[in-house]
Amino acid sequence: MGGDLNLKKSWHPQLMKNQRRVWEEEKKALEERKRIDQMMKERAEERAIQELQQMQEAAGGKKRMNRVDWMYNTPAAGQAGTTEEMEGYLLGKRRIDNLLKDNESAKLQ
């Protein structure tokens, strides 16, 4: 008799391309589930740390400030050099080569 005509249909589950598509979707779902579990675990750890800090504050420990002021503070002057040098570099008045050479000569002395 005739062959299986369903094998010629695009929706047939025994076709390799459909099996591959199902396998890929299952793999994506598994990876997504692992990622969600990891995020839930991290959030649980953060909550536990936060609860411990609240208990410590209630017991008389120092109060922790949740601020982001450090993001807006200027960097320490010793780390980046003087502001004149940096501004000169940013404005194109000085070359970075000279800044590097000056730093190297200062280190040698």
Automatic annotation (TrEMBL):
GO terms for cellular component: U2-type spliceosomal complex. Signal peptide: none annotated. GO terms for biological process: mRNA splicing, via spliceosome. Pfam families: Cir_N, CWC25. It comes from the Eukaryota. Its main location: nucleus. SMART domains: Cir_N (SM01083). InterPro entries: CIR_N_dom, CWC25, CWC25_splicing_factor. Keywords: Coiled coil, mRNA processing, mRNA splicing, Nucleus, Spliceosome. Residues 10-46 form the CBF1-interacting co-repressor CIR N-terminal domain. It is found in: Nucleus. PANTHER family: CELL CYCLE CONTROL PROTEIN CWF25, PRE-MRNA-SPLICING FACTOR CWC25 HOMOLOG. Belongs to the CWC25 family. This is N-terminal domain of CBF1 interacting co-repressor CIR-domain-containing protein. It comes from Lineolata rhizophorae. The lineage of its organism: Eukaryota, Fungi, Dikarya, Ascomycota, Pezizomycotina.
